[in-house]
Amino acid sequence: APPVAQAFGWRAMLAGVAAAALVLVVLSQPRRGIWDADRDRNAAIWTSPFAGLRVVWDSLPLRALALAALCFASVQVTVTTFLVAYLSTEAGMGLVAAGVVLAAAQGGALLGRIAWGWLADRLRAPLEVLALLGGVMAAACLFLASLQAAWGTIVFALAAVLTGASAVGWNGVYQAEVARLSSAGSIGLATGGAMFFTFGGVLVAPGAFAGLYELVGTYRTTFLLLALLGVAGGSLALLARRRAAVAAAR
Questions:
Q1: What would the pLDDT profile of 38-59 be if each residue is shown by its tens digit?
Q2: Which residues contact 169 (CB under 8 A, 6 or more apart)?
Q3: At the N or C end, where does the chain have fewer CB atoms within 10 A?
C-alpha cells in the first residue's frame, strides 16, 4: 500500500484495498453453504445484548482472560496506529520506509498467529502461551522504544516482526481458549462477550496513548510504558489458568 499511495495517491490505494475485499466476497460465496451447514434457522435473533457480558463476568477464568485481552488489544491497536508516526518523527525514517516496516509487522502477525496456535496445541498449555505472549509483547515494546536511526532498516523490520508476531498474533489462541473455557451451550455468547473487552481496548487505547504522548512529549517513553500492558496481560492469563484449575478441581 505505501508504494501505491506514493505513486498513484491515497485514494487509489484505498480503492485497491476495497477491490481486494470485493474479490474476497465473491470467492467466498461458493463455500458459504458448507460453512453454514449447521445453521439453525429457528434460532432466536432478539436476545439481551448483555447476555454475553454476563456469561464472561460470571466466570472467573473467562473474566481474567477477557481482561488480559483488553490489555493485549490495547498494545496491538496502539502499535499499529502510532508505529509509522514514531518511526518517521523520532527514529529518522521516511514515511514510505516506515510504512514498509508496518507491513513487516503485519507479516510477523501472519506468521505469529499460526506459530502461537501450533505451540499452544503442541504444549497443550494455551494460557501459558498467552502469558509468554505478554512477555514477548513487553520485550518488543522495549525494543521499539530503543531503536536508533543508525541501526538501519533491517533492524527496524526485525523489531516490527517481533512486535507483530506478539502484539498482533495473540488473537487466535485467545479466541480458542475462550471457546474451551465456555460451557457447550454458551460458546457464541461467551465469544461475543469476550470480544466486548477486546474492542474496549481498541476503543480506549489510541486516545489514551495520544494523551500520554501529549503529557510526556515523546513516543519512546510512551512505548516504554506500553510494555507494562503486555506484562499485565500476561499476568492476567496466568490468573485465568489458576482460576480454571480451581474450577476444574471442584
A1: 777 887 777 777 889 999 999 9
A2: 108, 109, 111, 112, 113, 115, 116, 133
A3: C
